[in-house]
Amino acid sequence: xxxxxxxxxxxxxxxxxxxxxxxxxxxxxxxxxxxxxxxxxxxxxxxxxxxxxxxxxxxxxxxxxxxxxxxxxxxxxxxxxxxxxxxxxxxxxxxxxxxxxxxxxxxxxxxxxxxxxxxxxxxxxxxxxxxxxxxxxxxxxxxxxxxxxxxxxxxxxxxxxxxxxxxxxxxxxxxxxxxxxxxxxxxxxxxxxxxxxxxxxxxxxxxxxxxxxxxxxxxxxxxxxxxxxxxxxxxxxxxxxxxxxxxxxxxxxxxxxxxxxxxxxxxxxxxxxxxxxxxxxxxxxxxxxxxxxxxxxxxxxxxxxxxxxxxxxxxxxxxxxxxxxxxxxxxxxxxxxxxxxxxxxxxxxxxxxxxxxxxxxxxxxxxxxxxxxxxxxxxxxxxxxxxxxxxxxxxxxxxxxxxxxxxxxxxxxxxxxxxxxxxxxxxxxxxxxxxxxxxxxxxxxxxxxxxxxxxxxxxxxxxxxxxxxxxxxxxxxxxxxxxxxxxxxxxxxxxxxxxxxxxxxxxxxxxxxxxxxxxxxxxxxxxxxxxxxxxxxxxxxxxxxxxxxxxxxxxxxxxxxxxxxxxxxxxxxxxxxxxxxxxxxxxxxxxxxxxxxxxxxxxxxxxxxxxxxxxxxxxxxxxxxxxxxxxxxxxxxxxxxxxxxxxxxxxxxxxxxxxxxxxxxxxxxxxxxxxxxxxxxxxxxxxxxxxxxxxxxxxxxxxxxxxxxxxxxxxxxxxxxxxxxxxxxxxxxxxxxxxxxxxxxxxxxxxxxxxxxxxxxxxx
Length: 764
Hints:
Elements: H1 13-28, E1 37-39, H2 50-62, H3 71-85, H4 88-106, H5 114-130, H6 134-145, H7 151-161, H8 165-178, E2 184-186, H9 187-221, E3 222-231, E4 237-245, E5 252-259, H10 267-272, E6 276-281, H11 298-310, E7 315-324, H12 326-335, E8 342-348, E9 359-360, E10 363-364, H13 366-375, H14 380-386, H15 389-402, H16 409-413, H17 418-424, H18 431-434, E11 450-455, H19 461-474, E12 480-485, H20 491-494, E13 499-500, E14 503-504, H21 513-526, E15 538-542, E16 547-551, E17 560-570, E18 576-579, E19 587-592, E20 609-610, E21 618-623, E22 630-644, E23 650-658, E24 664-666, E25 672-675, E26 693-708, E27 713-720, E28 748-753, E29 757-763
Parallel strand pairs: 5-6, 5-7, 7-8, 8-11, 11-12, 12-15, 18-21
Antiparallel strand pairs: 1-2, 3-4, 4-6, 9-10, 13-14, 15-16, 17-18, 17-29, 19-28, 20-24, 21-27, 22-26, 22-28, 22-29, 23-24, 23-25, 23-27
Helix pairs in contact: 1-8, 2-3, 2-9, 3-4, 3-9, 4-5, 5-6, 6-9, 8-9, 11-12, 13-14
């Protein structure tokens, strides 16, 4: 499912493909350390005709010397070498021996990605032995395995088989390029390279055959009702797709996703788990003519779809809604006035319009214009443009260098967007936004189970936490569970990554969250046991500890707090001091020149680990080394004591752990942003008092949990927003979207007084 691109958060298509390849190869590649070095020059490219001969030769030379003390790992790697060498009969036997060993060990047939290579080796062996075309041999191998699997296992296998060969081609090409300058290869690296080649060779061989084989298997398992039109208020018809189990013994509950994206969906996956799967689309999507308005009508339309589902003969009258991003928002929009048939909601990174989208902390992002322009148009060129990062960076810089009003962003692009302008007309969380999702007391009437999934590195975390906090605030008995860990916005689509933007994720956090969601729905709608991981209202992975902890509330994640004051003194290694004891009198000066645009090409790092910090328009405060480990879990807060010469300013706050070795680890990402005039109240604007000393209290909307190491330091980076991909607040106190560089002739000047502090929630 496509998402709004969030700077520092979401993956591009190329990055997503690389993520998939890394996940797949990590899952099937047995780890082994070898010794002997072999002569080897990589082929020019993954698709070069010489690649097959080069890899065959490498495998043939490696087989006689390959050893491994682990029998399972030995058989798995040996089968890969045999396939690459063209000895498919031997590879088939090796994989058969491996299956038998695993069967004895596990006591049941294990369905994992290794099954793909069982099928491929067997197909190649059949091709050689029976002298039949590979297409026929692979079909025979497929039919020996997939039809015998249960629906859930078959769905997994067909999803794995359907991975694009381009994913593995790009991974192999990257491996080739990394070895381009070398003329030899160690045995361990050779095995890894052969697995990368084998994956590409296998997928390009059977890839064209999968569509028809899967379609035949699907017809046996499911009923596909195709496009359904459902009448909504005002005579509007909502397009929907329906997939359900073919032979249920009785009517089944339904899982509904309501989305704005006409792309891949999980209706069949729902059916594989024993539900009727329905995917319905925002009015205008799949319509003719297409006219899409994000957010405004989805609540009413989703309720109409739920009413329709409850009346169908195959439905048992109960509906659960799920989704991430936009479809997560739609579930909450439907629950604003919950229909009787809606029995549960499970969302990941649910968007909260007016809270975390199209702005964050009341600061508008250029990505909102990019996304709105995409979802309200259907031309192929618009989709191509949407994924063209260079195009949008150029627009960001063009606007930034022009100094024009933020409202002119669309004009500079040559495509004015009335929806984006409408959003800019509502910078406060006013009735326009309040009408879209539950507001205040409306949360009290939501008495169904809710599951929220979020991540410390998810751009949509503030929205997810907004729903969670408001639901519990206005309904103290709400059955609402939160699970949160070191995840980004794409985690439900492609699963957790072992390495996320250079950060090594704890093994404990590598949870199949989509499967966890089905287990939760099974508990709510089918009476099965609750997933063991969901032990309390708040379930969180402690980074660096490799542990899951559980708490009754966000506040209960910690048992106390450490208060760090912003001290003007110099810190070791640069910046100012972050101290546990307040000093008096001193202050830190900060000046931001809004007219200077020499930094237009600067792009902040999205890496979660950095050897050094390259920042702009900010001040840094560094603590003394921690004398013992400390667990930072929850939402940090603080009070800023300052004098400023403007009536408003946009702040961003980032926290790092600086390890004893000097590396910086981001504790959350993106940064916590807030417009000072809305820090007290996102509904009403309270301007600053220019020239007067004043205080601003805040509570972060960025939740995290990490065990800070002994000897590490806490680093606070306090910045002023001045970058090409954000609205710029020049501080006049007027409508920010109407301000221009002409309003910034006087630089922003701040004194951060030593009474300023942040409070870090700590489990002592």
